[in-house]
Amino acid sequence: MARKNQEPAEAPKIPSIDLLREELAREEGKHQVRKTLINITGVLIVAAAVAALMATRLFLLIRVHGNSMAPTLENGEVILLHQTKQVEAGDIIGFYYGGRILLKRAIGCAGDEIEIDGEGNVYVNGEKIDEPYLAGQKQGKCELDFPYRVPEGMTFVLGDNRAISIDSRIKAIGCVEESQIVGKVAFRAWPVARMGFMR
Question: Is residue 16 flagged as an active site residue?
Answer without folding.
Answer: no
